[in-house]
Each structure stands twice: as structure tokens, then as C-alpha cells.
Write a structure and sequence with these properties.
The structure is a single chain. It is built from 7 helices and 15 strands. The chain is an alpha+beta fold and 355 residues long. Helix 2 packs across helix 3 and helix 5 runs parallel beside helix 6. It starts with a helix and ends in a 5-residue tail after the last strand.
């Protein structure tokens, strides 16, 4: 009788383990800087990054389809020539996606690339029998409010230094002024459209890989107010806060909640083979985290997160090595194609639990 009871118990445990077994996959968010055209052999460099990391999904920002050529097909073909095949298709806007998993549906959430104000496209993936929405995004770069506290204009009316009258930057230190300037962009409209869409399509987990062109309230904190050109300000940036309030998790910051020692800088990055200055604020520290992977959904959890790239940025117009911080890096010694660093997150996707 006892032996039968133990056998039944072991069968139950094995059954439960099977029900709750997890599927691991990774997502890479990468701004490809005008499809890799800004550096020599950019497409080759981008393919080398992907081929080296072999992510399950890649979300791309700054897909332009120059000369009416489908860039998603170009990067897929380059990877296929290396023996690394992906699904993928261009839908609209200036974003795209490739995936090791089949794509069963696509939806346009937000597309204002005709007025250069960004786009968000949703792809429904079949990940080993389970559905997951993955959404690449690239939002409005105009009204780049993170430059105001650093004493520079954010694109409107220009990108020039706000002169204090002596040839030095004059920081804007009124938080309300900064937030209102940020709201003049179309970033908040895009985030609202994203939240609204997935409030209506909430049957599956959601992953958002995005160049937000905006900072995070989880980084501009009291603890960080004197770092990275924040000029003494702690700012509750409205767009990342809206995502958090809607239940979306900032994967990198959830794994590395210490924003001082793990700043997660993604902008600006030093690209290999680029001869010009990447920095836009030669008299200020513009380093910031503006590229993200957010997620939401039952049984979906980020387990590991990395920055991808050489780990060399800029401050006051000078190259700065980011090794003094504790952020984990991948592909540090490779040839880098972009002015943004990438973000790679490993996810666990648990099976649906029974009633």
C-alpha cells in the first residue's frame, strides 16, 4: 500500500513538473542605425552580432528600406548564408523583426513615420506551441527632453547648446518644463496606443523591444541625481511610468535594480569604423538608457539581461569606457555597427496552468 502511494505521488510530481515546465528563449533589441549604412560593411556587422549571439527573436529600430529594398529580407538572407535561418517580414514603419519561431499574425499599433514620429508593430509568435506578442518600436526622436537638463536643446527648435552667455551649457532645471517639452513629441501618444491595444488583446504575453528615445523614471532617481549629467534632478519620466502603471516590467531594471552601479547605458555607443563624433553634447555628459525590453503576461519572466556592444560611450565629447560599472556585457570585442548599444534578455515561458 505504501509503495503504491509513493508511486502515485511520484507520478503526480512528474506530471506537475511537466505542466509547469519552462521554455527558454532570448530577445535582442537593436537600433541598427539607418540599416547599418552609417558604418562600413554595416549589414555584415549586424549579421555578425546576431550570428554570434543567436537570439530567438530580434527587434529592430531604424529600418528604412532604402532604395525600396526590403531590409528584413536582406538581413535574413545574410544570416541564411551563414547557416542561421530566421522567420521575419517587414510590415510598416521604421521597425522590423526576425524570429526563430513562426509568425502567425501581425498588427500595426502606431505608425507615424510619414511625419518622422515613430512606429510600433506587433508580431504574434508561436513559441513551441505557445503564443507571445513581440512588438518592435522606435519612437519620436524630436523633443528629446533628456538633453534639456544637460543644457542642450532636444531637436526643437534645434540641437544646439543652450548658452549661458559665457559659452557654457545652461541646464533647464524645472522638472515640469522638461516633462511638458517631452509631451510635445509623439512618444506619449505611441505609448498610449500600445497600452490600449494590448488591453484589448491581452490573451497572450507581450514583449516590447524599443528605442524609446526617452529616459526612465527608474534611472533618474534621487540616488542618481548627480550622475550622468542629471544636474541634481530626479525626474518621473512619463512614458516609462505609464508602462509601469499598466503592468509592464522593465526587464533590465527588474534584474538590476541598482541604477547607480548598473546604469545600463545604451546611448551613445561608439561604432567601429565611424570617423566622426557621435556625441551631440560635446560639453555635457549625455549617457543614458533609452533602449529597453519591457514585458507583461502570465508565466513570462525575464531571467537574465545583458548589454551588447563594445562598452565605449561618450561624455563631454570624449570616449568613455563603461567598465567602471557592473553591467554585464556581450560582444565587447566585436566590430560594432550602431550608435546605440543592444539589449539582450533571456526569458522563461511557463506552460499555462490547468484549472
Amino acid at each position: 500500500m505504501k509503495q503504491i502511494t509513493i508511486s502515485v505521488f511520484l507520478m503526480f510530481v512528474l506530471s506537475v513538473n511537466s505542466i509547469f515546465s519552462q521554455t527558454g528563449f532570448s530577445v535582442l533589441q537593436l537600433n541598427v542605425w539607418q540599416e547599418g549604412t552609417m558604418t562600413d560593411s554595416g549589414l555584415i556587422k549586424i549579421a555578425t552580432v546576431i550570428d554570434s549571439l543567436e537570439p530567438g527573436v530580434v527587434t529592430f529600430s531604424e529600418v528604412r528600406n532604402f532604395n525600396n529594398e526590403d531590409w528584413i529580407e536582406k538581413i535574413k538572407n545574410e544570416l541564411k548564408n551563414r547557416g542561421n535561418e530566421y522567420y521575419g517580414e517587414y510590415v510598416a514603419g521604421d521597425v522590423g523583426l526576425i524570429s526563430k519561431f513562426p509568425i502567425s499574425d501581425t498588427k500595426i499599433i502606431f505608425d507615424e513615420t510619414r511625419i518622422d514620429s515613430g512606429s510600433l508593430i506587433a508580431y504574434l509568435l508561436d513559441i513551441n506551441g505557445q503564443k507571445v506578442w513581440v512588438c518592435p518600436g522606435h519612437l519620436d526622436y524630436k523633443y528629446y527632453a533628456v538633453y534639456l537638463p544637460r543644457g542642450y536643446s532636444g531637436g526643437k527648435p534645434d540641437w544646439k547648446m543652450i548658452d549661458d552667455g559665457s559659452g557654457n551649457p545652461h541646464p533647464v532645471n524645472n522638472v515640469n518644463t522638461i516633462i511638458e517639452y517631452n509631451k510635445l513629441s509623439r512618444k506619449d501618444e505611441a505609448i498610449k496606443a500600445f497600452i490600449r491595444f494590448f488591453n484589448l488583446h491581452n490573451e497572450y504575453p507581450v514583449i516590447l523591444g524599443i528605442d524609446l528615445n526617452g529616459a526612465s523614471h527608474l534611472d533618474w532617481t534621487e540616488a542618481n541625481k548627480d550622475n550622468f549629467g542629471h544636474n541634481g534632478l530626479a525626474i518621473e519620466w512619463n512614458n516609462t511610468k505609464a508602462l509601469e502603471d499598466a503592468g509592464y516590467i522593465d526587464s533590465y531594471r527588474s534584474i538590476y535594480p541598482d541604477e547607480v552601479n548598473y546604469p545600463g547605458i545604451t546611448w551613445p555607443a561608439y561604432p567601429t569604423g565611424y570617423k566622426k563624433q557621435v556625441s551631440w553634447t560635446p560639453q555635457a555628459d549625455e549617457r543614458d538608457r533609452i533602449d529597453y525590453i519591457f514585458y507583461k503576461g502570465k508565466n513570462l519572466k525575464a531571467s537574465k539581461a545583458y548589454l551588447v556592444g563594445p562598452g565605449i560611450s561618450f561624455s563631454h565629447g570624449e570616449k568613455i569606457n563603461l567598465d567602471e560599472y557592473n553591467d554585464p556585457w556581450l560582444f565587447k570585442d566585436g566590430k560594432w555597427p550602431s550608435d546605440h548599444f543592444g539589449v539582450l534578455v533571456e526569458f522563461n515561458l511557463g506552460n499555462q496552468t490547468p484549472d
